[in-house]
Design a protein that fits this description.
single chain, about 290 residues, mainly beta, 6-stranded mixed sheet, about 5% helix, about 60% strand
């Protein structure tokens, strides 16, 4: 009985090792590699001899990747053929944890005694360079090459809770939360000044819209995507317009006269209701702006 146990215990341990080893399929290092594509942007893909392929759902070990060169990347392919969830890369005592959401790379953290600042570049139909600080993406530069239009640049700068994108393609700038929800977008002129902008909350609802029309700068304020207030200055006077269900309710005009401010309140039809906080008499109700 003791002799039987002597043989059974190593066999059980060996079978466990084989089962664990078979959990991942190791792919040929000269044929397959892990690739970060910029089209669609930041998508983690598996490349076979330079061409994108879709692997069957399962677990794989790729021995070539763009992040750490020859190393072991432990990935899982989901039912949609995308890299599912976070994965790790191991190389010479270094271990990188790559955060992935819906096949899109979110962040990479390198755990090692070495400095956590590094950089890598991709060159395909465009050139991508990423800078990492403390294992997180801090900045990304993309240059797209088109012979007829010349080089076009995009700059992404990453912060703790959001990242900003400056796009020289169409002179725009935008802020996104780390889950890629739009927080702010703006149009810029040729010298980088904002000519129009929109701000959004985390649910994607419009909060603020600034723009210029007929040489007047307007600021529109929104609640639950509905316009509630409009601010602007014209001919030295400050205007505040209040709305409900997109319809004008009243207008307040403040004018500077001889060193003091005069305040006028008008209804939606333009009839004067108040002047300097005093209700107007019926004889003055006909005054319009």
């Amino acid at each position: 009985m003791l002799k039987l146990n002597f043989f059974l215990i190593p066999c059980i341990a060996l079978l466990k090792q084989i089962a664990v080893a078979q959990e991942y399929v190791r792919l040929d290092k000269d044929t397959y590699q892990l690739h970060l594509s910029e089209s669609p942007k930041d998508t983690i893909r598996v490349i076979e001899k330079g061409s994108t392929i879709k692997l069957k759902p399962g677990k794989y070990i790729l021995q070539q990747n763009q992040f750490m060169g020859p190393s072991s990347a432990f990935i899982t392919i989901d039912q949609e053929g995308l890299v599912g969830g976070n994965f790790k890369i191991e190389k010479d005592g270094k271990r990188a944890i790559v955060q992935v959401r819906h096949g899109i790379m979110q962040q990479m953290e390198v755990k090692t005694d070495a400095v956590l600042n590094f950089q890598y570049a991709i060159t395909d139909t465009s050139s991508v360079q990423r800078d990492f600080r403390k294992g997180k993406i801090s900045q990304e530069k993309i240059v797209v090459y088109q012979a007829n239009l010349g080089k076009k640049k995009v700059l992404k700068t990453f912060f703790d809770t959001y990242y900003t994108v400056e796009n020289e393609f169409d002179h725009s700038k935008a802020d996104y939360s780390l889950d890629n929800k739009l927080l702010y977008k703006a149009k810029l002129d040729c010298v980088g000044q904002v000519v129009e902008s929109k701000s959004f909350n985390k649910e994607g609802q419009l909060l603020k819209h600034t723009y210029k029309k007929n040489k007047i700068n307007y600021t529109d304020l929104y609640q639950q995507n509905n316009l509630v207030e409009r601010l602007y200055i014209s001919n030295g006077s400050t205007y505040r317009e209040y709305f409900k269900n997109q319809l004008l309710l009243k207008k307040i005009v403040e004018k500077k006269q001889n060193g003091h401010i005069e305040r006028y309140v008008y209804n939606a039809e333009g009839k004067l209701l108040e002047k300097n906080g005093v209700e107007e008499t019926k004889g003055r109700d006909g005054d319009n702006v």
